[in-house]
Amino acid sequence: MNMIFESMNDAVGHTPLVRLDVPASEGTRVYAKLELANAFGMKDRVARNIVSEARRLGVLRPGAPIVESSSGTMALGVALVGRSLGHPVHIVTDPRTDPTTLAKLRALGCEVHVVAAMADGGWQGARLDRLAELMRELPGAFWPQQYSNPDNPGAYRVLAAELLADLGPLDTLVGAVGSGGSLCGTGRALRRSLPGLRVVGVDSVGSTLFDQPDVPGRLQSGLGNSLHPNNLDRTAIDEIHWLNDREAFAATRELAREQQIFAGNTSGSVYRVLRHLALSAEPGSRIVGIFPDRGDRYTETVFSDEHWAAHRLEELACSDAPVPVEYGTPVRSWSCADLGGRPAGPRHLLFVEANTSGTGVQALRTAAGLGLTAVLLTSNPDRYAGAAETGCRIVVCDTNDASALRRTIQERFRREEVAGITTTSDFYVPAVAGLAEWLGLPGNDEAAANRCRNKAELRRTLEAAGVPQPRFAVVTDAARAEEAVASVGLPCVVKPADDSGSNDVLLCSTAAEAAVHAARILAVETNVRGLPTARTVLVEEYVDAPEYSVEMFSDGDDAVCVGVTAKHLTGIPYFVESGHDFPAALPEVQRAALTDAVTRALKATGMRFGPTHTEVKLTAQGPAVIEINPRLAGGMIPELIRLATGSDLLEQQIRAAAGLPVDLAARRSGHAGIRFLLADRPGTLVSVDGTDGALAAEGVERVTVTAAAGRPVRPPQNAYDRLGHVIARGDDAAQVAAALGAARQHITVRLDADASAAK
Question: If DSSP codes are grouped into helix, strand and coil, which group holds residue 683?
Fold first, then answer.
């Protein structure tokens, strides 16, 4: 079927996959992904992705200039995309750029700036110096930064999807390495469904990308570098091959002669490595090489006998097979090394904000205990008491601005130094999901995270999937609140669609009361973290039944139930959790019903990675899902699970985020519980007394006061009104209940100057 596109931008991608006729082990098939079939080459994908993301985030304004440094296909890709969208395009290049490319750039309407001499860092360094000048001269100019912008490797998620659609599973991916985008981006995306994929890189002799001595006069273009691009992730590559100029050029000529593919030296280098791997592959293997660009740019170099003679290429060594070397050994001709021998570099785990209930700071300590460098990205470090003492690195930035977060990460970290990204805060789960996708890190789909964070969207999703839940109505206009109440019935629960900690959740007994509360919620424009609210109210049926939370941990299609927690709530009209017991005392049939309902709900939302905390009411008719929190449970539930089972879910969340093995197995079978310290009347907190006696009670593990003296307090209306907690553990539920009861007998909450107690 012919494909018709609205513009040249839409025609990017959809490139052919061609089987190569090469000698190979029995049943092995070798394919070339012809990225050279794009309008100008492989970098058309990169340019389109970077420019479209910059426009989406508002970093690139309509009509603003685009400035890029490139000697080849990236320049042409930016010209294609930028000019078609109405942007002036400035390309900084060097004398190695062939006349054909220069002619194309000028014909497309670009202004081309050719640097005259090398600087520190070779030609690349000279180009970057000139680019910096242009950025100062052109207000509002946008620099795609192909070497550091994760939207470069991110562009190749589509290429990976094309390979899987056209070919299905494959065993080995081979690609040239220049900016680090194509091979690392494609390999990371493929490994999400093909974890055993072997990724083989091809570099040039004299390139410093894999710690070789720099030879600035090398003739190959399109691969190799004198600088280390931030996008290069050597942890994503298993094996590297180096070819000298003669070997690369000769292979390019052989590719044209043997396969009728007229390509550039990057494709030729990949072709030589493909032929070698085909002969030594396990029988029945599928091997794919990425062929980046056409040969028309190389008619006066690779395909010119005069060029060969002028540079005395025939005098260079030309090997028939690679020589295996230890990583770090200088090479002059075709050689290869296993990157398992490369010295390990720093591994950062990025946290975008955290919760303030204790597990946030504990997560930073846990990351350090796993050999990771924890980095807390926050707009307000003072929010996290004790964070600095964990030894974590604190980076202050605007965490409520997606482009600011991206810019901070892009400027401060090499991709191979970032092991993962996560959060322990409800509010930043969608942002983390988006950043994980942007960086090609383990994580959930951003749309799935948003589906769970916005309870109105969650309700619609569960309804479409047939998952049992309360009746509901969604209100975005206070004038429609009474109509929503009529459809749901009284009494009803009225709450914000996207808040946390039971904030503004109220049981309403009349339509008028519901309308007033809905109007109050709709008037709130920002939440406690300064993020814009959804300005959406959920009106839902009040389900008068015991409440539980189901703690799940997902890895793709495999969702494991870690356990079920019993909830204690304060009295209506509020729904603040006053305590938890783990594990809940439930018959196995009810536990299984809860787990099944939550498993169906997670599948419906698309949550497929890491911990989730789902609240469920257990009615006479069965479970009814109240909400899915797309993160680890709060309220110290992970600590209860650790005390009861020996399984540290916080550690497992960090392991999953960093791509480390996860172990959910229980080490013991015990029980644990928590009771929160609460005020029974409004006032000012004077003190919480008797904590030493409470801690001495048998079975009590921890007594923590979180509220400072002098703080105004009230009977709880949300989780922020808690004053502290007591945690206990024992062999059974009765021991835990006794320990918690004994501890509470010692504790006195004193308000104002009054000696009366709230217990």
Answer: strand
H-state helical runs in 347-466: 359-369, 402-412, 429-439, 446-453, 455-465
Q: Edge-to-edge, what's the strand order for the sheet holding 66-69? A: 66-69, 89-93, 111-114
Q: Is the dihedral of CA 459, 461, 463, 467 positive or negative?
A: negative
Under the banding of pLDDT at 50, 70 and 90, the label for residue 217 is confident
The two structure tokens encoding residue 712: 């105004």
Is-cis flag, bond preceding 150, omega within 30?
Answer: no
Return the structure tokens found at 558: 């495999």
Q: What is the mean pLDDT of residues 407-433?
A: 96
Quote the Cα angle for 617-551-716, to 5°.
60
CA distance 731 to 726: 17
Produce one character per residue of 16-32: b if its CB has 16 or more CB atoms within 10 Å, e if not: eebebebebeeebbbbb
Measured on CA atoms in the order 136, 140, 146, 147, is the torsion positive or negative?
positive
Contact indicator for 293, 41 with CB cutoff of 8 Å? yes
Residues 6+ apart with CB under 8 A from 604: 461, 462, 464, 465, 467
CA 587, CA 563: separation in Å to the nearest integer? 13
Contact 274, 456 (CB under 8 A): no
Closest CA to 92 of 78, 107, 81: 78
- The Cβ-side half-sphere exposure at 164, using a 13 Å CA radius, reads 15
**DSSP assignment of 237-257, as one string?**
-SEEEEE-HHHHHHHHHHHHH
For tokens 């497309």, name the residue. Answer: 108
Judge if the upstream peptide bond of residue 715 is cis by omega within 30 degrees of 0.
no
pLDDT digits (tens, 9 = 90+) for 629-660: 999 998 899 999 999 999 999 999 999 999 99
- Look up residue 528 and give its two tokens: 């406690």
Cα–Cα distances in Å, from 268 out to 174, 206, 280, 338, 635? 12, 17, 19, 22, 58
Spatial separation of the C-alpha atoms in residues 706 and 509, rounded to whole Å: 33
What is d(CA 122, CA 209) in angstroms, rounded to the nearest whole number?
Answer: 14
Please give the Cα distance from 413 to 402 (Å, whole number): 17
Which residue is it, tokens 């004038």? 479
CA distance between the termini of the chain: 75
Distance CA 440, CA 428 (A): 18
Q: Are 241 and 201 in contact (CB under 8 A)?
A: yes
pLDDT digits over 178-213, tens only? Answer: 999 999 999 999 999 999 999 999 999 999 999 999
Q: 191 phi and psi, to 5 degrees?
A: -70, -15
What is the spatial distance between Cα 90 and Cα 500, in angstroms, rounded to a whole number? 47
Q: How far is CA 381 from the centre of its chain?
A: 22
> For 82-129, how does the pLDDT look when each residue is reduced to its tens digit (9 = 90+)?
999 999 999 999 888 888 889 999 999 999 999 999 888 777 789 889
**Helix %, strand %, coil % of the chain (to 5):** 35, 25, 40
Helix (H) or strand (E) holding 162: helix 156-167
Q: How many CB atoms are closer than 10 A to CB 283?
A: 9
pTM of the model: 0.91
- How far is the CA of 232 from the CAs of 182, 412, 434, in angstroms? 10, 14, 20
Pairing of strands 393-396, 373-378: parallel
The answer for 278, left when phi > 0, alpha when psi is -120 to 50, beta otherwise, is alpha
Q: How far is CA 463 from CA 79, 410, 499, 613, in A?
A: 47, 40, 21, 19
Tokens 């997560």: give the residue: 363
